[in-house]
């Protein structure tokens, strides 16, 4: 298992290419994982903590227990053959030592990659101190070393999304990279100018979240982004279609063609 996980982690890392970004359509259970993995061109998956939490009837922001989070990771990782990056929120621990233990358990569950964030609460303020947040990234990296599975770390910077300052966000991004992060999940890059500035000032690969109204995918690629995900918006897309279908059927409308989808 370790050799397989290690190979998946290395593959996931290699898929983060500036200008040819890894596109990950976020999933939250075994069936969504299999459906997305079966789509042409899909090379890796990523979970979304918001979607996983809401599917369990709890709020995002570590509403799940660590045991539940690990169980979901194992379920999804075991459902597909391609690498899975797990949104592991804050690491489910108040300190870096606990983050390392939990990431070791996450690797044992089959994860090839991890998202770890630097905000303490919801909404995305306040943040851990830069020292504490950096130590937590270093702990995730240490888990990869200790297990022999070099888990790909996508370290999230929440500063701009929480109303903070640009210089703080960039300083954190570069600190996390020095601590072992492989890419920076930089929230708050809502314009082409901000994306370009982040790519210029951050000493590593940039990952962004996209949605209607965000910078178009082709432009993100042109600017040099390495990864694009969609977070809770994929769950919203799915639920919107489900609700629209329920409305149509309840009104004795036509059968939607998608009712015949083979999964």
From TrEMBL:
Pfam family name, one: PEP_mutase
Keyword terms: Lyase, Pyruvate
Residue ranges of coiled coil: none
A molecular function GO annotation: lyase activity
Gene3D superfamilies the record matches: Phosphoenolpyruvate-binding domains (3.20.20.60)
Record flagged with keyword Lyase: yes
InterPro entries the UniProt entry points to: ICL/PEPM (IPR039556), Pyrv/PenolPyrv_kinase-like_dom (IPR015813), Pyrv_kinase-like_dom_sf (IPR040442)
Stored PANTHER family: CARBOXYPHOSPHONOENOLPYRUVATE PHOSPHONOMUTASE-LIKE PROTEIN (AFU_ORTHOLOGUE AFUA_5G07230), PHOSPHOENOLPYRUVATE CARBOXYLASE
Protein name: Isocitrate lyase/phosphoenolpyruvate mutase family protein
Native species: Glaciihabitans arcticus
């Amino acid at each position: 298992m370790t050799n397989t996980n290690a190979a998946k982690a290395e593959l996931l890392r290699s898929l983060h290419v500036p200008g040819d970004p890894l596109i990950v359509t976020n999933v939250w259970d075994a069936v969504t994982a299999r459906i997305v993995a079966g789509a042409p061109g899909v090379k890796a998956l990523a979970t979304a903590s918001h979607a996983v939490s809401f599917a369990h009837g709890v709020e995002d922001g570590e509403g799940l227990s660590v045991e539940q989070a690990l169980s979901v990771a194992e379920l999804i990782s075991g459902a597909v053959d391609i690498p899975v990056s797990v949104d592991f929120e804050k690491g489910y621990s108040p300190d870096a030592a606990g983050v390392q233990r939990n990431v070791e358990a996450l690797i044992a569950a089959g994860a090839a990659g991890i998202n770890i964030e630097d905000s303490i609460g919801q909404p995305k303020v306040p943040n851990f101190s830069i020292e504490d947040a950096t130590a937590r990234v270093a702990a995730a990296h240490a888990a990869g070393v200790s297990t022999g599975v070099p888990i790909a770390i996508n370290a999230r910077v929440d500063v701009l999304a929480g109303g903070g300052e640009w210089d703080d966000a960039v300083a954190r991004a570069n600190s996390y990279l020095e601590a072992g992060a492989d890419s920076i999940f930089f929230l708050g890059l809502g314009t082409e100018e901000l994306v370009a500035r982040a790519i210029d000032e951050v000493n590593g690969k940039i990952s962004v979240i996209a949605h209607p109204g965000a910078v178009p995918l082709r432009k993100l690629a042109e600017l040099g982004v390495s990864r694009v995900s969609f977070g809770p918006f994929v769950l919203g897309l799915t639920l919107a279609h489900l609700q629209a279908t329920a409305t149509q059927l309840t009104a004795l409308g036509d059968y939607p063609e998608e009712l015949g989808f083979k999964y």
